């Protein structure tokens, strides 16, 4: 703990409640999730790079999405795993806390922008298939991805800077497993109401703003699919969007509950559950969503495994 006249130079993370035995069980579970997440998303990136059948805008974006999933889970999970192994509270320096919060928010914002771009890509593929290669050319794809990354990292500079301009003098104990912004604001002796309102507006602009092209695109996509005369044609058209749509529902659903609210300092238990969905479950599900429901990715994986197996046998 700290005096009421100073600001924190380090924070203590409470992590998860329960006994040390429970912490070891959680460590084992989250370590498996993290390992599968790294391996699955890395496989997607490699497959997209090496298989010529996947050299298209859809899979180019998917490769970047998988990279973002690796980044967002790596920012959070290793610190969380280390805390589960340590008895008592885990300390994290102010600089590390700033870095962790910035990377977490920046990567998440980049992911929102990329999901919006992927929705537009699916709209062009379904609604304007004859012009798809002209509209979604390599230059356009590179420009979209570059803008998404730049927007994600530049847009979170001020929110993180503003968060750490407050004086954290109530305590230096964060009731979380990482440097969560809501829990940080709880420790401030300053009036954070205006800052929380501004952060709420920014969350609306970023999340709802990136969700809008997704909603509009899928409105046109569904309308176009319903006009296809044959059931097999409708099924084939929908299959090209099913993986992306599933990921959008999971990703946006959890983030809307966590960030789009006027009061940032809600219950720690609520924060922890939703943060686990974002940093552990969604990155873990990404490889399964985009492989089990995508025939091209499955074929590419099978071909690469068949090529590797003879080498292993030899």
TrEMBL record:
Subcellular location: Cell membrane
Superkingdom in the source lineage: Eukaryota
PROSITE patterns: G_PROTEIN_RECEP_F1_1, G_PROTEIN_RECEP_F1_2
Pfam families, sorted: 7tm_4
Spans traversing the lipid bilayer: 25-50, 59-81, 101-120, 141-161, 197-221, 242-261, 273-292
GO molecular function: G protein-coupled receptor activity; olfactory receptor activity
Membrane topology value: Multi-pass membrane protein
First-listed, main subcellular location of the protein, grouped into a coarse class: membrane
Matches recorded under InterPro entries: GPCR_Rhodpsn (IPR000276), GPCR_Rhodpsn_7TM (IPR017452), Olfact_rcpt (IPR000725), Olfact_rcpt_6C-like (IPR047132)
Described purpose of this protein according to its UniProt entry: Putative odorant or sperm cell receptor.
Family: Belongs to the G-protein coupled receptor 1 family.
Name this protein carries in UniProt: Olfactory receptor
Species, as recorded: Zalophus californianus
Gene of this entry: LOC113911245
